[in-house]
Specification:
Elements: H1 13-26, H2 29-37, E1 41-44, H3 58-76, E2 79-82, E3 85-88, H4 93-103, H5 108-114, H6 116-127, H7 131-140, E4 146-152, H8 156-171, E5 175-185, E6 190-191, H9 194-199, E7 201-214, E8 221-227, E9 238-241, E10 246-252, E11 255-260, H10 264-267, E12 274-280, E13 308-311, E14 323-326, H11 332-341, H12 367-380, E15 384-395, E16 405-414, H13 420-427, E17 431-433, H14 436-439, H15 441-447, E18 452-453, E19 455-456, E20 466-468, E21 474-476, H16 480-485, E22 507-508, E23 515-518, E24 522-523, H17 525-530, H18 532-535, H19 544-549, E25 556-559, H20 566-578, E26 585-589, E27 592-593, H21 610-614, H22 619-627, E28 635-636, H23 639-667, H24 683-704, H25 708-736, H26 742-762, H27 767-777, H28 784-789, H29 808-830, E29 839-845, H30 848-855, H31 858-865, E30 867-873, E31 880-886, H32 888-895, H33 899-908, H34 911-924, E32 926-931, E33 934-939, E34 943-949, E35 953-958, E36 961-966, H35 971-992, E37 1001-1007, H36 1009-1017, H37 1019-1026, E38 1028-1033, E39 1040-1046, E40 1050-1058
Parallel strand pairs: 1-2, 3-4, 8-11, 9-13, 17-26, 25-26, 27-28, 29-30, 37-38
Antiparallel strand pairs: 5-6, 5-16, 7-8, 7-15, 9-14, 10-11, 10-12, 16-18, 19-24, 20-21, 20-23, 22-23, 29-36, 31-34, 32-33, 35-36, 37-40, 39-40
């Protein structure tokens, strides 16, 4: 009976994952773990609620994987993550638009005709349409979270908590009704909040025109104004100038124009004009002009208020003409200016974005469609000075993608502008990852905070709980019980807190006893998701203590666009209600792109379905790839990319695991019975254990700081380079020794400890593969209660560093040796000399300190580089010459106007100066360079180092030094290399025959003279290396035969014949 379950060298990860899912489910691993940890210290988490009316995409998969990583990590560190439940965002435009598509409805009036009750019932069904797909994806990628207890924003308990919060804002005088210019979607006929509007901003091309406003009583004199929204010119009522800006009146041919002096040459680059007058903006105030497009009419009593020049602080000379066209109904600044300067108001546009009847030429036309017609009208009326198309940032509806418009309307607002200092203060208490968001993208948004347009002229959402009475009294209702106090009778049995049910009940005014009318709005669905911090608990109606225990939240993470969405609404609401931050740590994610770095789009056809990847390559490789790059940057994604991640880490890890199990099973050694102090083991073992403990410290630090990619990189380096490429490869002779020596036991003990520790280190990253290895290496050796208690690696504590096992000096010495070996192999590769061909000499150039460090492992370096002799030097003099090539695409942004001169100075470095620069780069990652009296730090990325070794030598650098290898090959060296190739071919044939490492063989071969001479001269060595009892020229019908051309010239045919085991 074997110690461990046999492990094949190849693994089917999706099959493994399905097996682990069944194991977890059968043994109720998740719920038992939750029960076991329920009394631990809480780590507070909040799931950002997705909407389940669409299938999950790869961005959602990234989000779920990242949450799972950190929550597993915290659980393994003795925390009870609470609440570990999902959430569903159920209301708002995303749901309504999807239902409109299903029903073939194209506008808001069509929804009303269809019936609000029927429409909202469809919304309720639609919003949970893909819940099963979401839950299956969540389970498949290994995210342990309770979806059965998920909070649901459309349920009455949740809505009631939202109502309570609105009543609190009402009592604080923060919830008010106002008339403002607000972003609006004409297609959805709905108000948009500032954070919704900012989510839809994108670069687009629009007409850019400069037009002539005729000065009153002077038909040949004009004010010039510039705009990118020609449709708003119909509603122009004022022209704004800067009080202290200098303007000019010029004559050009037979006409006179007013514009800013600073913008004169930009507007009229061909000159040919005459400056008639210079005038300050303040002296132009109250000048009058004629209406540009005279279709919208002002009331008789307001005619004298309009078509005036006024001063405004927002006018600048950055672009345009320095004179700003003002249409108060369609611009926030214009609206405020109109109120301050008593300008009138023209709004000949419906909420659906179409011109009203009075705009005769374009009545019923959509505003953006009208732009070209208006430009044509102005051209024909000789009112157009310039006309072009310009790229600039414009707003589009965040859901339906229609161009948005600023539109003056009544709305209910949360007075966030009065809380600016408060929210800036609460933001200071949050740890943002990456940190630049705190005062950058997010901080800037808070710094320019505006009132939150809360009300929505739609159907499926939390009803605004405000009732008004004709007597002037208004009520904001904060809960169902309070609602009942304003009613006569009971609520209907089928009542729910939605339209139309909420509008079918009657509330009576407490002042005059008359019927009150509810304001006919629902609220911004972003407010609802932001209320999840308390509404998930039905606070304050229930679970008051639970909410207080879970506030503020320790950790949230979502995509970067939530800085304008959920991250903002969470903080805005908690600041307004409690004057506290709702969360303490916020990790943001970049968007997932295709393999070429392009945004995924169904239209383009580059969408990669996540299930196609995790069902063929595996969820763990996908998780690992996500964690191996900074998650806040845009991440490229494809099956090929995930496949590469699988090959490097997973194939290497599995090969080490398989190698260990195979060998220890052969010797039937239980590693738990090996009594072996680390200090008694070989230097190689001590080094690996030291590196493992350093790794533990590194991984802990980086996960604590939400730097998963740094932790993953360190783990990858350890498994691939330290464990596999160095320790295992250099320990093979110990493992293959037929005798069970102490040295062999120590090697087994070391690798066993490393693999078991790695399962725990890797558990949050790759929960499936780590648990599969753990089940075999750990639980296979357990029995009884111990086996039942530790059901899974996820029950384990996260590894802690053992300080006594850390030997930094040893790590530095061995790491230097490894670096020298890598550099030596790179030098070989540069001149295409394979490692199997020995070389006569290598010269290592480094400091005296490094020389002493390297000498400790000189035999290992010689063996790894296959070199006969190694010499040390302190200087490169006479051995290597250097030149440096500037990389201008990096120098340019770094040094701007100085870049050309810096580049020239870099090119001129030669001889001793170039050598000193290279030495400084190797040691300090930079060198200093004086150019034109200035000092510049030239860093590694600024230059390409070009080296030229001494004739007959090839060179390559390592940190702090250089290695040179002698490239002159003698016949004896070449023959020795040929022997190593033959040995390699025999070993690969043994592997093909599935022979055990200890099984003896006979070898029969045919080859040319060079092959025969090599085998004859090195026969004893070949036998020892391959466990061959004999190696003879000839042929055989037994065994496995292989033919190969070695280096394309030495053809060999050999047969490996297994011998019976003794």
């Amino acid at each position: 009976m074997t110690i461990f379950k046999d492990v094949k060298s190849q693994v089917n990860i999706p099959k493994l994952e399905q097996k682990m899912l069944k194991f977890w489910e059968k043994n109720d691993v998740y719920h038992k773990l939750r029960e076991e940890r329920k009394d631990d210290k809480k780590y507070i988490f909040l799931e950002g609620p997705p909407t389940a009316n669409g299938l999950p995409h790869v961005g959602h998969v990234l989000t779920r994987c990242l949450k799972d990583l950190y929550l597993r990590y915290k659980t393994m560190n003795g925390y009870f993550v609470s609440p570990l439940i999902g959430g569903w965002d159920c209301h708002g435009l995303p749901v309504e638009i999807e239902v409109e598509k299903q029903l073939g409805l194209k506008s808001k009036p069509e929804v009303v005709d269809y019936g609000i009750k029927e429409f909202n019932n469809m919304c309720r069904k639609s919003v949970m349409k893909y819940v099963n797909d979401w839950e299956e994806m969540t389970k498949r990628v290994g995210f342990w979270i309770d979806m059965d207890k998920a909070y649901i924003t459309m349920e009455d308990y949740y809505i009631e908590s939202v109502w309570w919060s609105l009543k609190e804002l009402w009592n604080k005088k923060l919830l008010i009704k106002g008339h403002k210019v607000i972003p609006s979607c004409p297609r959805c006929e709905v108000t948009l909040s500032s954070h919704e509007y900012s989510q839809g901003l994108k670069e687009t091309s629009d007409p850019s025109i400069t037009v002539k406003f005729t000065k009153a009583d002077e038909v040949d004199t004009f004010f010039l104004a510039w705009t990118t929204t020609p449709w708003t010119l119909i509603s122009n009522v004022g022209l704004a100038v800067g009080k202290n800006i200098k303007y000019v009146k010029i004559k050009l041919e037979d006409e006179y124009y007013y514009l800013a002096k600073e913008l004169l040459s930009a507007t009229f680059p061909d000159e040919g004009y005459e400056i008639i007058e210079e005038i300050k903006g303040k002296d132009m105030e109250e000048m009058q002009y004629e209406q540009l497009i005279p279709f919208a009419k002002l009331p008789a009593d307001e005619k004298n208020k309009g078509f005036r020049v006024v001063t405004a602080d927002f006018v600048s000379t950055e672009d345009g003409t320095g004179i700003v066209h003002t249409a108060p109904a369609f611009g926030p600044e214009d609206y405020e200016l109109a109120q301050a300067k008593n300008l009138p108001f023209l709004q000949p546009v419906e909420s659906n974005g179409n011109f009203t009847e009075e705009i005769t030429p374009w009545k019923g036309m959509f505003i953006k469609d009208a732009d070209r017609h208006i430009i044509k009208y102005l051209r024909e009326d000789n009112k157009l000075i310039t006309e072009k198309v310009e790229k600039h940032t414009s707003g589009f509806c965040w859901r339906c993608k229609t161009p948005t418009m600023y539109y003056a309307r009544e709305a209910w607002l949360i007075r966030m502008s009065t809380l600016r200092e408060n929210i800036l203060a609460t933001n200071e208490q949050i740890n943002w990852v990456p940190n630049h968001l705190k005062h950058g993208r997010f901080g800037d948004f808070l710094d320019n905070i505006v009132d939150w347009a809360l009300s929505r002229e739609r159907f499926w959402g939390t009803p605004l709980p405000i009732w008004i009475c004709s007597c002037g009294h208004n009520e904001c209702i904060g809960g169902v019980d309070e609602l009942k106090t304003f009613m006569k009778g009971d609520l209907p049995k089928d009542f729910e807190l939605h339209k139309p049910w909420i509008d079918e009940i009657t509330l009576y005014c407490p002042k005059c006893k008359k019927k009150m009318t509810r304001e006919p709005f629902v609220i911004d669905c972003w407010y609802e998701s932001g209320a999840s911090q308390f509404a998930q608990w039905h606070y304050p109606f229930e679970n008051k203590e639970l909410f207080e225990e879970h506030f503020p939240i320790d950790f949230i993470t979502e995509a970067i666009d939530q800085t304008r969405g959920w991250f903002y609404t969470l903080l805005a609401i908690s600041t307004a209600l409690f004057d506290k931050p709702s969360y303490l740590n916020c990790l943001t994610m970049g968007h997932v792109l295709d393999k070429k770095g392009h945004k995924m789009s169904k239209h383009i056809g580059n969408v990669v379905q996540p299930d196609s990847v995790y069902n063929t390559i595996g969820a763990d490789p996908m998780r690992w790839y996500f964690f191996s790059v900074p998650v806040w940057n845009p991440t490229r994604f494809s099956a090929d990319i995930i496949g590469d991640a699988k090959k490097r880490l997973f194939d290497t890890l599995w090969n080490v695991y398989s190698f260990f199990v195979t060998n220890i099973n052969i010797d039937k050694i239980n590693p738990k019975t090996i009594e072996s102090k680390v200090s008694d083991r070989s230097v190689l073992d001590q080094w690996l254990i030291s590196k493992l403990n350093t790794l533990i410290s590194n991984v802990r630090k980086n996960l604590d700081e939400f730097q998963a990619h740094k932790a993953a990189t360190a783990i990858d380096q350890f498994i691939v380079e330290d464990l596999s490429n160095w320790h295992i490869r250099r320990s093979r002779r110990r493992f293959w020794n037929p005798d069970v020596t102490d040295e062999k036991k120590n090697a087994f003990a070391t690798v066993y400890e490393v693999l078991v520790t790695l399962t725990k280190l890797l558990a949050p990253f790759i929960p499936f593969v780590s648990d599969e290895i753990y089940q075999n290496l750990v639980r296979k050796l357990q029995s009884g209660k111990e086996k039942q208690k530790q059901l899974s690696v996820h029950y384990e504590s996260f590894p802690e560093k053992t300080k006594a096992n850390v030997n930094k000096k040893l790590e530095e010495e061995m790491d230097l040796s490894v670096a020298i070996v890598k550099a030596g192999r790179a030098a070989r590769n540069n001149v295409k000399i394979k490692v199997r061909i020995p070389i006569q000499e290598a010269i290592i150039v480094c400091s005296k300190k490094q020389q002493e460090m390297a000498k400790r492992f000189l035999p290992e370096i010689k063996e790894e580089l296959n070199v006969k002799d190694i010499k040390f030097q302190a200087q490169l003099t006479g051995m290597v010459s250097y030149s440096l090539k500037p990389i201008f695409k990096i120098l340019g942004p770094a040094f701007k106007q100085d870049a050309p001169d810096v580049g020239d100075a870099i090119k001129k470095l030669d001889g001793k100066d170039a050598l000193e620069a290279v030495n400084s780069l190797n040691k300090n990652k930079l060198f200093k360079l004086d150019v034109n009296g200035k000092s510049f730090d030239i860093q590694e990325e600024h230059v390409e180092v070009i080296s030229s070794g001494k004739e007959g030598y090839a060179d390559a650098p390592f940190a702090g030094g250089q290695i040179l290898i002698n490239t002159q090959l003698t016949p004896e060296l070449i023959q020795e290399g040929l022997v190593r190739d033959i040995i390699r071919l025999i070993q690969s044939t043994r592997k093909e025959a599935n022979l055990e490492y200890t099984q003896n063989i006979k070898v029969v071969y045919k080859g040319d003279t060079e092959i025969q001479d090599a085998i004859n001269n090195w026969q004893d060595y070949i036998k020892t290396e391959t466990l061959a009892t004999s190696i003879k020229s000839g042929s055989s019908k037994e065994g496995i035969t292989t033919e190969k051309d070695i280096d394309g010239k030495n053809k060999i045919k050999l047969t490996v014949i297994p011998l019976e085991k003794k």
